[in-house]
Amino acid sequence: MTDTPAKPDPSRDNGFPAGQDTAALLRAAADDQLTPEQAAALERHLADHPEDRARIESERALRRAVAAAMDTGPAPAALRQSIEAMLRQDRTTSSQATDTVGPAETRSRSFWRRTVLPVAIAAMVLLSFGVFLSQRNGQGPALNGGFDAGALANAVSFVEQEHRKCADSPEYRRLKLTVTEAADVAPATQRQLGAAPQRIQLDDQGYTFAGYGPCHVPGSGASGQLVYMPTSGRGAPISLFIQRDKGHLDNLVNTSDCVRDAIKANRAGRPGEPQPEDQVYIWRANGLIYYLITDRDNEAAPCLESLGAPAHQVSL
């Protein structure tokens, strides 16, 4: 009797935990809902498939666009009717199609209907809403990839949450920060971001470099995160996020300014006291965007000076 060869386990092929396929993990990454184990597996996958970073950013861009459209009221009736008609046609056609398995799957009719149709519908929704909003506002849709203040606030919220994950979980920090020597940061960021930060040492300010790892700050450029631990062993870490500057903050952050924002921290405060805030400082220099985040505002100024941030501060 001949044994039937077992089907390959997709989770082993892509390096993800069992039961998780590539598309599901990329969507979870776009939603910032990865566990430390998944985050580590994703970074290994992206090292071999860097083009998937663009897929994650596309998912995030879609979510931002949908979120921006949610408060504009119902979609136009003609748009809803067009989408409903496409879905009815797809259900009719796909019920007649034959699925294929293995390498031929990407050539099957049902594959293209499962994959392309949702993308086409999403594109139509976004395009229609862009036209719809431009008609309402008397403006053309912004297609140049620029950020508005809401999108920048989104990025600030993301870095605060990611900073808090690293601050609260040594295991998450260990899995994410794959570069552990300060001397290796420059070549790592040069490869990933196309530029290296001029200054990263904060030893004189009482903070020791703990590590650097790739990150996914919302925007059009690749990014990474540096974490610093208090040399004394007491107090909270601080984070420095670095993102390739592709011009998406040109209308919000001048190169001569350091933009400051306070965000409600994702952590509990002392009983009877207001919810604590984290301070985020944003500046641009030498082809990079910097986000410094700390919960100790009184220690921010010397750290900013050591990192070469502009002295002039403005509020977000």
Overall number of strands: 7
H and E order = HHHHHHHHHEEEEEEHE
Determine the structural class based on helices, strands and strand pairing: alpha+beta
Sheet having the most strands: 7 strands, mixed
How many H/I helices? 10
**Range of strand content:** 15-25%
- The helix content is 40-55%
**Low-confidence parts, pLDDT < 50 over ≥5 residues?**
5-13, 98-112, 131-145
In order across it, which strands form the biggest sheet? 1-2-3-6-5-4-7
* Total domain count: 2
Roughly what is the average pLDDT, rounded to an integer?
75
Principal-axis shape: globular
Oligomer: single chain
Distance between the termini: 72 Å
Question: How much is the radius of gyration in Å?
Answer: 23 Å
How would you describe what is shown here?
Helix 2 (22-30) packs across helix 4 (52-69) and helix 5 packs antiparallel against helix 6. The chain has helices at 10-14, 22-30, 36-48, 52-69, 77-94, 109-137, 149-168, 170-176, 185-193, 300-307; strands at 207-215, 223-230, 238-244, 258-264, 277-285, 288-294, 313-315. The protein is of the alpha+beta class and 316 residues long. A seven-stranded mixed sheet has the order 1-2-3-6-5-4-7, sandwiched between helices. The protein folds into two domains: 10-137, no CATH class; 149-315, no CATH class. The protein starts with 9 loop residues before the first helix and ends with a strand.
